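INFO  loader      accepted 1 record
INFO  loader      residues=102
INFO  predictor   begin
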Amino acid sequence: MTDSSTNKKKSFQAVSDLFAKYKLEDKGGYITQEFQDFGYRLAAELNDLKRVSMYMKMSKTIDRAILERSLSFVKDAQNARSKARLFMWKVKQIKEENKKQK
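INFO  predictor   done
INFO  writer      dumping tokens
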């Protein structure tokens, strides 16, 4: 009672063959700088991945403390309809407060 499948010896496969089954979606973008990573994390936290480039630009040009304070404010807001709009409003408000203090 010899089954042909048990007589076959299993051979090793190349790693490239194993990973060929899985296709990753490449969106063509690269994150090479820390501010880009922070901008992407902001967009993800605010559920606004359509505007990742805007958040990257903000994280490059606006003081990090302002952005983190605004993000903290948005996280604490329970009934926000749009986290992104609330975040932008808070950034503007904090910038105006800083101007008045100077």
